[in-house]
Amino acid sequence: MNDELHKVVSGIGPKIKALRSENGLSLQALATRADVSAATIHKMEQGDMVPTITTLLKIASALQRPVAYFVEEQEHTPPTAVIRPDERTDIYTSHTGIHLAGITGPYDEFMVAAAYATVQPYANAQPASGSSSKDKDKDKDEKPFSILSWQDEAETTARPLKQAGR
Hints:
Shape: elongated
Mean pLDDT: 75
Radius of gyration: 26 Å
Low-confidence stretches: 151-166
């Protein structure tokens, strides 16, 4: 059996077991729903048995999933990170009255970064007067952002806008 086929076949049992657990079903309960013996389901979950197409159809129906769910590779889901308020790093901005705190890691042309923005009343969207040339060099790296939500205390969640042509 080639590696790709082995990977697909060996993934069927864990998917069955995970769905059974998510649905709070015992082996016997799934067996009854699918009209398949509990021993057969147990063997499939442990990787000791490859189901026939008929058995897989019955189990898929009992778990309310298409057969394709069991035989397709799962898309890679990037890990989720939680950045608590005390772990946020400051993000430079030359605009007065705006404080940005990063809630994602660094970004580049192909990734998106998000920041928690605190905007003072009457904040100036223009760079602060007296900005040095060093500050102006930093300004060219700033990305436009859009406000996703607004709270009473003038706190927002922002994300960069998609740049034209990218």
